TrEMBL record, chain A:
This is DUF1468 domain-containing protein. The keyword Transmembrane helix applies. Residues 11-153 form the DUF1468 domain. Keywords: Membrane, Transmembrane, Transmembrane helix. The chain crosses the membrane at residues 88-121, 128-148.
Automatic annotation (TrEMBL), chain B:
Residues 19-438 form the DUF112 domain. PANTHER family: TRICARBOXYLIC TRANSPORT PROTEIN. Keywords: Membrane, Transmembrane, Transmembrane helix. It comes from marine sediment metagenome. InterPro entries: DUF112_TM. The chain crosses the membrane at residues 20-48, 113-139, 146-179, 199-222, 320-343, 355-378, 390-411, 423-444, 456-483. This is DUF112 domain-containing protein.
Length: 158, 504
């Protein structure tokens, strides 16, 4: 069973219930459309869950014996797990990066993020990372800060 | 068609600053398209904040040219790396890569560029002719019909998008639901804001766009990175300029594929990928020697390339005439209009005609820019295709943060963008397309306002929708678009089939 699908279906039901309950407290005219949308999302989420469960049970019934692809998927599982860890590590690092901009400014935070993220990714050499990061931050600085006058702290405020 | 607006549009596009933006956008689009794993939608979402400070026409010209450039750019990595740069270039791989293996990479890229130019130009002209004509019809639409159009838009894009019909509709439904957050337009009641000032004006469509299309792409690239596979691109050793004899032979195929692209683009939910496969199959069907397909046939290369660029103009027809985006990329173009206070709907061609015609002309002119830029810079794109995935992913995240902050100068939007990004990644893993959600976010307010107005007209009765023949037809079509993708229609067909054989 695809757990991403199932969990997304459950999330959809939860989201619909949450919106439905919250909108019940608003005036009738303001709540009318959100209630309709919430009902539709709830029903579609239920259909999505039923579809997933049904298709998985059908697949299990038709599969008489384990095929070679099963063993392949088992052997590739640790790699997939590592890939997820890598992706979520970068996501967590990006959240910290966004938070740190207010403290140390955009350029220092970005440089630190690029450094740590590329260290986790381990795909580019030091020189490539350095030149690439300088070029990227230089372009952003030119476009967003110089031309567009972005109101974001550029340097540390302490 | 209002000729003064038509002329104003072309005058806007032909200003030096706009021409430079078109060339810049095309070049950027080509580079982005050439990088495997990056889509035109993502590039548009990231570039959108840059256009905020520009004139609406100038910003839209740049975005439209980027869209066109990326459609061609996808073929560069398809031909040189055997990896489509964008999903719409998947069919290009079949005959493009064998050609580059035969040492004809330049020829393949030249033909691809010329086919893209022809397809794009055809669709630009179709857009210029069809959108105003459709716009005249749409001007007769009131809120009742508009509500029906919005319902049809969301059901079509939901039922025709990737995955099952339930997943598409659910994605669209979530978009509609999220669009209700913020101050209610009729009563002024703050909904789902929990006293948070940043939510009073609703969830910014651009923030959702950047999160849904860019962060999942970056996370997927990170997953792919570091697997020890180095990108090896074939070299361009021959001339890029296609031969006149080749062009002459390919013209009927390019024309047919362009037409397929325009028609496919017209249908919301179907994009360049559907059109390119459709055109490829048709090219094979019409070919005298089918055995050459998949081994480096120029017809097999030019068909998908002409079709995927023709989708651009085709998808813009419902976007401009009805305010219903035909694809996620056109949804961003519509979002760009909304950022400048231009709301989607029939008044796009009247009240805001100057801006809309600027966009239409930009689509046409961008094709000429693509031809020039393509001939000059395609060789440079070889270097771009080799940029490691890990570096591209980190760069995307840096751009996402600065882009989402630029919308309202608010860190709240950055956080919201990350939340949408995580949700988009989840959707991707579950096989749910994010495009219907984006369309839902755009159409939500349109649907709600037109519904409330319709209810006022009809005195609170749903029968008001049945009294308008146009609305009734559109709503029946919407119902049919949902039913056609369910087993229900198949069961009904089977039953009727059995009954007719029994009676026969």
């Amino acid at each position: 069973m695809n757990m991403s699908r199932l969990s997304l279906g459950v999330f959809g039901v939860g989201l619909a219930v949450f919106f439905f309950v919250q909108n019940m407290g608003y005036p009738a005219r303001a709540a009318q459309i959100p209630l309709m949308f919430a009902t539709a999302v709830g029903l579609l989420s239920l259909a999505w869950i039923v579809q997933e469960v049904w298709s998985t049970s059908k697949l299990l019934r038709t599969r008489a014996c384990p095929s070679s692809s099963d063993s392949d998927s088992i052997s590739s599982a640790p790699r997939t797990y590592n890939q997820y860890i890598k992706a979520f590590s970068i996501y967590a690092l990006a959240l910290m990066y966004a938070y740190s901009i207010g403290l140390v400014g955009y350029f220092l935070a970005s440089a630190l993020f690029m450094g740590f993220a590329l260290l986790i990714v381990r795909e580019v050499g030091f020189r490539y990372a350095l030149i690439g990061s300088i070029a990227l931050l230089g372009t952003i600085g030119l476009v967003f800060f110089y031309f567009l006058g972005l109101n974001m702290p550029m340097l540390p405020t302490f | 068609m209002d000729s003064s607006m038509l002329m104003a549009g072309i005058a806007n596009v032909l200003s030096w600053s706009n021409l430079l933006l078109i060339i810049g956008g095309t070049l950027l689009g080509m580079f982005v398209g050439a990088m495997p794993g990056l889509s035109a939608t993502m590039a548009l979402a990231l570039l959108l904040p840059v256009t905020f400070s520009m004139e609406p026409g100038a910003g839209l010209s740049m975005l439209a040219s980027l869209y066109l450039g990326a459609s061609y750019g996808g073929s560069i990595s398809a031909i040189l790396l055997n990896t489509p740069g964008t999903p719409s270039a998947a069919a290009t791989v079949l005959d493009g890569y064998p050609l580059s293996q035969q040492g004809k990479a330049g020829k393949a890229l030249g033909v691809s560029l010329f086919a893209s130019f022809c397809g794009g130009l055809m669709s630009g002209i179709a857009l210029l002719v069809a959108a105003p004509l459709l716009g005249i019809v749409v001007l007769k639409f009131g809120p009742i019909e508009l509500f029906a159009v919005a319902v049809l838009g969301i059901t079509i894009i939901g039922s025709l998008s990737q995955g099952s019909v339930v997943s598409g509709l659910l994605s669209g439904g979530i978009g509609l639901l999220v669009s209700t957050v913020g101050m209610d337009l009729i009563t002024g009641t703050p909904r789902m804001t929990f006293g948070h000032m940043n939510l009073f004006s609703g969830i910014s469509f651009t923030v959702a766009l950047i999160g849904l299309f860019s962060i999942p792409q970056a996370l997927l690239l990170i997953e792919k990175s570091g697997q020890g596979k180095k990108k090896v691109a074939n070299k361009i050793t021959d001339r890029l300029m296609p031969l006149w004899a080749d062009i002459k032979t390919l013209m009927p195929n390019i024309g047919r594929s362009g037409l397929i692209g325009i028609i496919t683009g017209l249908i919301p939910g179907t994009g360049g990928d559907t059109a390119s496969w459709f055109a490829y199959n048709e090219a094979k069907r019409f070919a005298k020697d089918k055995s050459r397909f998949g081994k480096g046939d120029l017809a097999g290369l030019s068909a998908p390339e002409s079709a995927n660029n023709a989708v651009v103009g085709g998808a813009l027809i419902p976007t401009i005439a009805l305010g219903i985006p035909g694809s996620s990329s056109t949804a961003i173009l519509l979002g760009a209009l909304m950022v400048h206070g231009i709301l989607p709907g029939p008044n796009l061609l009247t009240e805001h005609g100057e801006v809309t015609y600027t966009l239409i002309w930009a689509v046409i002119i961008a094709n000429f820019a693509l031809l020039g830029v393509g001939l000059m810079f395609t060789r440079m794109c070889v270097a771009v295709t080799k940029v490691p995935d890990g570096f591209v992913a980190c760069a995307i995240i840096v751009l996402c943060i600065v882009g989402s902050f630029a919308i309202n100068n608010s860190f709240f939007d950055v956080g919201l963008m990350f939340a949408f990004g995580l949700f988009g990644y989840w959707m991707l893993k579950a096989g749910m397309a994010p495009a219907p959600m984006v369309v839902g976010l755009i159409l939500g307010p349109v649907m709600e306002t037109s519904y409330q107005q319709s209810m006022l007209i009809g005195g609170g009765s749903f029968m008001v929708f049945a009294k308008s023949p146009i609305a009734l037809c559109l709503l029946i079509l919407a119902l049919f678009s949902v039913l056609q993708a369910t087993p229900l229609l198949g069961i009904m067909r089977q039953r009727f089939g059995k009954r007719s054989t029994h009676s026969g």
